[in-house]
């Protein structure tokens, strides 16, 4: 593999400030920021929310709380259901959302499509499922739903291990109805991981089980949770021993750190024991979010910081990227203030922002973004062109591409973005235009973003890896023919997996001797560049999402 070194390391996008504001419209002040139509932040972190109905409500609910009830998406009786004031609404919503996620009805994105923890549709869904109404969620409830749903999903394997060990027998556990299991998981999570006052947790979850299911379900929850409290208080929670052969050890670690066994085995193989454990600990932590100020609207980081201060959202500036800010809490407040919906900023991880630094977009360039939707990188690339040049954004997914187009308008970069709905492989065959720079942000396992995508670990299978690798090879081949001689191909993923990253590039270079590796050094801080010249963002080392990118120059 040939590595081309740069004589003059470049400052990754930092130099932009020299040109940016003379080329932009006047800096805008933020207008009224409390609109109800909120942009989906989930789209920008690469998730969507599917709508499927749960097959049937788990059971008729307790007669004390409900009147006659029909099920169906537009249930006309839902308004007549009685309001239950005994059950804590965040628990009721969390239990239903968890059940829906597990049955494939939604992703565990921290924000739903309304940009709020629970929009009207979700509340109607909760009513239909439980058979009663709860009071509306306030901001504190929304935060609790986010925390409980994210944490309970992440810790699912470990929580189930505890629940199983406290059930009479395995059949009781395996045959448990879905809602009951979710209520137990929530209770276990609150007691074991959130360390909440245990008897309050027991009471609340027992009440939910009684009202939403039946008195017997409440008794079962009571019995199991009380056993758990005793074990916790005596410090004797059952924990698998890490011993035996490789497989047995991986199984134990998978339970303790709550990940699928195949992932643990893969990480032990590629990273070693210690690093694999550190990675799992990272994946189980509450994520930090990054916001990128949208300079295309004349909205700089200083303006974003001013708004965050007004909103009392704690924040830190990114040490790596000019326009980025980090926030640990307060995303709901940012959303409700309309900053995302109105296009003043985007949710974008710094690890993804640094991929744009590696593309190093310059005004006047023609850039092809091959797998562009929902557009996080497209928008950032476009904002670096200052109205000169073009980003052609191709994606196979029409719905996600629609989001990209709408967001480009909001961000005021539509004049430099052309969206094309196509399979890249067909596009490459039929399109004879070549580009200065081609970014292939390939579909991948997402193994670098498990802390943000709490449910992803349970949805990925080992078999997916082979299919993804084959697709990545095909897309790389297609992308390569669209690069001008002397132009640049950037291959990136949000994975930390060697086989999706270095190995794909190595195999590409064998098939395409016309490309050589160009080091990422000088485009991103040195600490992100491996010896082979590739960009690596390592969650454990950099406390950001995992990501990879390679700069490949077409020499002829
Ligand atoms: C990792 S996501 C891209 C994220 C995007 N670059 C961003 O920053 O927001 C991968 C994208 O590849 C698209 N994709 C998958 N197969 C494709 C194909 N054959 N042709 C074009 N796009 C494809 C998916 O629809 C998905 O939107």
From TrEMBL:
Region (Disordered): 56-86
Keywords annotated in UniProt: Methyltransferase, RNA-binding, S-adenosyl-L-methionine, Transferase
Coiled-coil intervals, chain numbering: none
Active site (record annotation): 494
Composition-biased stretches (Polar residues): 60-83
Residue ranges annotated for the SAM-dependent MTase RsmB/NOP-type domain, each copy included: 279-555
Residues involved in S-adenosyl-L-methionine binding: 371-377, 395, 423, 441
Record field: transmembrane: none
One Pfam match: RsmF-B_ferredox
Signal peptide location: none
Alphabetized InterPro entries for the sequence: MeTrfase_RsmB-F_NOP2_cat (IPR049560), MeTrfase_RsmB-F_NOP2_dom (IPR001678), NusB-like_sf (IPR035926), NusB_RsmB_TIM44 (IPR006027), RCMT (IPR023267), RCMT_RsmB-rel_pln (IPR023268), RsmB-like_ferredoxin (IPR054728), SAM-dependent_MTases_sf (IPR029063)
Similarity comment text for this entry: Belongs to the class I-like SAM-binding methyltransferase superfamily. RsmB/NOP family.
PANTHER family recorded: NOL1_NOP2_SUN FAMILY PROTEIN _ ANTITERMINATION NUSB DOMAIN-CONTAINING PROTEIN, NOP2 YEAST -RELATED NOL1/NOP2/FMU SUN DOMAIN-CONTAINING
Name of the protein in question: Uncharacterized protein isoform X1
């Amino acid at each position: 593999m040939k590595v081309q070194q740069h004589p003059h390391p470049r400052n990754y996008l930092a130099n932009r400030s020299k040109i940016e504001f003379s080329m932009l419209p006047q800096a805008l002040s933020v207008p009224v920021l409390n609109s109800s139509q909120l942009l989906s932040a989930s789209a920008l972190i690469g998730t969507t929310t599917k709508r499927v109905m749960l097959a049937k409500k788990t059971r008729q609910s307790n007669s004390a709380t409900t009147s006659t009830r029909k099920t169906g998406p537009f249930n006309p009786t839902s308004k007549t259901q009685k309001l239950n004031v005994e059950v804590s609404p965040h628990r009721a919503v969390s239990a239903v959302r968890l059940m829906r996620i597990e049955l494939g009805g939604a992703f565990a994105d921290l924000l739903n499509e309304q940009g709020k923890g629970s929009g009207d549709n979700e509340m109607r869904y909760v009513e239909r499922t439980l058979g009663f109404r709860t009071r509306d969620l306030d901001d504190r409830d929304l935060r609790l739903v986010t925390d409980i749903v994210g944490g309970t999903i992440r810790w699912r394997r470990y929580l189930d291990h505890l629940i199983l060990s406290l059930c009479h027998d395995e059949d009781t556990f395996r045959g448990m109805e879905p809602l009951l299991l979710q209520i137990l998981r929530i209770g276990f999570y609150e007691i074991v991981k959130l360390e909440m006052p245990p008897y309050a947790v027991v009471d609340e979850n027992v009440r939910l089980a009684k009202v939403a299911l039946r008195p017997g379900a409440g008794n079962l929850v009571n019995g199991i949770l009380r056993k758990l409290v005793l074990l916790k208080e005596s410090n004797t929670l059952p924990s698998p021993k890490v011993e035996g052969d490789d497989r047995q050890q991986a199984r134990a670690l998978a339970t303790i750190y709550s990940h699928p066994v195949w992932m643990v085995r893969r990480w032990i193989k590629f990273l070693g024991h210690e690093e694999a454990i550190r990675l799992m600990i990272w994946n189980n932590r509450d994520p930090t979010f990054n916001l990128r100020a949208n300079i295309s609207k004349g909205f700089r980081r200083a303006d974003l910081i001013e708004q965050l201060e007004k909103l009392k959202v704690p924040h830190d500036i990114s040490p790596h990227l000019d326009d980025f800010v980090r926030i640990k809490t307060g995303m709901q407040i940012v959303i409700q203030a309309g900053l995302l919906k109105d296009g003043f900023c985007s949710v974008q991880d710094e690890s993804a922002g640094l991929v744009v630094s590696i593309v190093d977009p310059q005004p006047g360039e023609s850039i092809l973004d091959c797998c562009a939707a929902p557009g996080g990188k497209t928008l950032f690339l476009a904002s670096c062109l200052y109205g000169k040049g073009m980003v052609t954004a191709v994606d196979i997914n029409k719905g996600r591409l629609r989001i990209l187009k709408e967001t480009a308008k909001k961000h005021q970069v539509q004049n430099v973005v052309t969206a094309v709905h196509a399979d890249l492989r067909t596009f490459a065959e039929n399109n004879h235009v070549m580009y200065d720079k081609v970014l292939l942000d390939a579909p991948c396992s997402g193994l670098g973003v498990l802390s943000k995508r709490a449910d992803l670990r349970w949805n990925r299978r080992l078999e997916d890896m082979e299919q993804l690798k084959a697709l990545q090879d095909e897309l790389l081949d297609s992308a390569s023919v669209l690069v001008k001689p002397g132009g640049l191909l950037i291959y990136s993923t949000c994975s930390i997996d060697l086989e999706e990253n270095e190995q794909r590039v190595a195999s590409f270079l064998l098939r395409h001797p016309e490309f050589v590796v160009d080091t990422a050094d000088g485009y991103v801080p040195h600490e992100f560049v491996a010896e082979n010249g590739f960009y690596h963002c390592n969650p454990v080392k950099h406390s950001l999402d995992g990501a990879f990118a390679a700069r490949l120059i077409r020499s002829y």
